[in-house]
Write a structure and sequence with these properties.
Layout (H helix, E strand, L loop, with lengths): L2 H16 L4 H4 L1 H18 L6 E4 L6 H9 L4 E6 L2 H11 L4 E4 L11 E6 L9 H9 L2 E12 L5 H9 L12 H4 L8 E12 L3 H10 L14 H13 L3 E12 L5 E6 L6 H12 L2 E3 L2 E2 L8 H9 L6 E2 L3 E2 L6 H7 L20 E8 L10 H8 L3 E6 L4 H14 L4 E7 L4 H11 L3 E5 L7 H8 L5 H4 L7
Parallel strand pairs: 1-2, 1-4, 2-3, 4-5, 8-13, 8-14, 9-11, 9-13, 10-12, 14-15, 15-16
Antiparallel strand pairs: 5-7, 6-7
Helix pairs in contact: 3-4, 7-10, 11-12, 11-17, 15-16
């Protein structure tokens, strides 16, 4: 779609919503979606009250009302492309909310915000992933962005009725769930959840009137309006099939990390996490934290090793929350000493939040950290983007791709993969392609791991700004 046609379509959408005088009475599913989205963003906020909120595509204010009622002291800016929609929202919520005319695709309000949200607006945008990223860049550290959209299969009954009459429905071609699942703001943790709702209508005519009343009657590009005779045939077919309309909805809720930094994990033990961590610390002048250290009976520990290899100051390395002698998982090593790991001590340190912190895990993602927490659980709790260290050679594909799948199932952001060992272009290509991940660096095998070697290898690490995409915030 050209810029001109996209602008023309947005103008038609704006006029359609402005003319939707009966929106409030007809928008049942829009209310349902607003409530569901609100519940998800509340859960992600985990009891924190946002001070500054931006809502895009507020419509007549279903979600706006919930936001204002729950956080009346917050500065709430509600925006929409349609001026008359804004007026209806203002009449619903009152003057304590700031209402602004704004195209969600071209946000022009100054950040940062603790919460950004938009209900059922992203299906109207030409480039939704880019808009999601642009909005996320206006979040405060720890800020949340929550949006919803419609998926392929929405109004399938109407589309089938049209096809049975030899016609093409003008309802939008919504994207497949698999495509939407790939929309994730850079370095933000979170995921999409989908649901299916079925709405009964009295008749096909009631369904058509519903689309018009809710401003959703703008046909997609290249589809002409039906003649009265064609429309009557389609409505009769729709009625004969039960006059039901299915909505497929997706809700995305993402959180910006509360501090700069990464969580370093590996596909297994001894894969090169500590060497990688030392290189990251040196390349980024980062802080370092090894939350759980075991195996001190056999070695000096990773914290001492990173200090020696990276040349960082001892005060830039935070002490472990638990340190144990046996070369076992942290849980088993603690139990061998009759000790207990207190989960409360595993809170992410937030001092110097703008300075990157390298947090190094123990073993791989499924290593037990406590009786109830795996390393994967801690990574999810901390919310940092993950650097996965993997072997470069034979056997790495299965371990690496499974680890990536486990992280994404939990909604973890993946900063990239570091391949450790002899260069292997074929494995690199496969991991990049099948894993849909960036290879941050390839660290060749070293005859001796020395500070000089780390100095050289750290030059292979991209800068912190490059890892963040060069656009850390607005």
């Amino acid at each position: 779609m050209t810029d001109r046609s996209a602008h023309s379509r947005q103008t038609r959408i704006q006029h359609s919503f402005d003319a939707a005088e009966g929106y409030d009475a007809a928008a049942l599913l829009q209310r349902v979606a607003a409530r569901r989205l609100f519940d998800l963003l509340q859960a992600r906020l985990a009891g924190r009250a946002p001070c500054r909120i931006l809502e895009v595509g507020c419509g007549t204010g279903f979600l706006t009302q919930m936001l204002h009622d729950t956080w009346p002291e917050a500065e709430l800016i509600a925006t929409d492309i349609a001026p008359k929609m804004l007026e209806r929202a203002r009449n619903r919520v009152g003057k304590r909310v700031q209402f602004c005319e704004m195209d969600a695709a071209r946000p022009d309000v100054a950040g940062p915000f603790d919460l950004i949200c938009g209900n059922l607006v992203f299906q109207w945008l030409a480039e939704p992933p880019a808009v999601l990223q642009t909005l996320a860049e206006r979040l405060t550290p720890g800020g949340v962005i929550a949006v919803s959209t419609l998926l392929d299969g929405t109004f399938v009954e109407w589309q089938n009725a049209c096809a049975a009459e030899g016609l093409v429905a003008g309802t939008p071609e919504y994207l497949e769930a698999r495509t939407v699942q790939g929309w994730q703001p850079r370095l933000c943790a979170g995921r999409w959840v989908a649901e299916r709702c079925v709405q009964p209508f009295e008749s096909g005519l009631a369904f058509v009137r519903h689309l018009k009343a809710t401003g959703a009657s703008v046909p997609r590009e290249g589809i002409a309006a039906f003649s009265p005779a064609d429309l009557r045939r389609v409505m009769a077919r729709f009625d004969a099939n039960g006059a039901l309309a299915t909505w497929h909805l997706a809700y995305g809720c993402f959180q910006k990390p509360r501090r700069a930094g990464v969580f370093v994990t590996g596909t297994d033990t001894g894969v090169g996490k500590t060497l990688t961590s030392a290189c990251l610390v040196r390349a980024w002048n980062a802080l370092y934290w090894k939350p759980l250290q075991s195996g001190l009976a056999d070695e000096e520990g990773d914290t001492a090793t990173v200090i020696k290899l990276s040349g960082c100051l001892p005060e830039d390395c935070l002490p472990p929350a638990g340190a144990y002698q046996a070369s076992l998982s942290p849980l088993a090593a603690a139990q061998a000493e009759g000790a207990e790991i207190d989960p409360a001590r595993l809170a992410l340190p937030l001092q110097n939040p703008e300075r990157p912190m390298v947090v190094e895990g123990a073993g791989g993602l499924m290593v037990p950290a406590t009786d109830t927490l795996m390393m994967l659980d801690l990574a999810e709790r901390w919310g940092l983007p993950v650097v996965l260290v993997a072997r470069s050679g034979l056997g790495t594909l299965n371990h690496t791709l499974l680890s990536l799948e486990a992280m994404r199932a939990r909604g973890l952001a993946v900063a990239g993969v570091v391949l450790s060992g002899p260069l292997n272009p074929e494995n690199r290509k496969t991991i990049e392609g099948k894993g849909q991940v960036r290879i941050l660096a390839e660290l060749p095998q070293q005859e001796a791991v020395t500070p000089e070697a780390v100095r050289t290898l750290s030059g292979l690490i991209p800068s912190w700004d490059a890892v963040c995409g060069g656009r850390e915030g607005v």
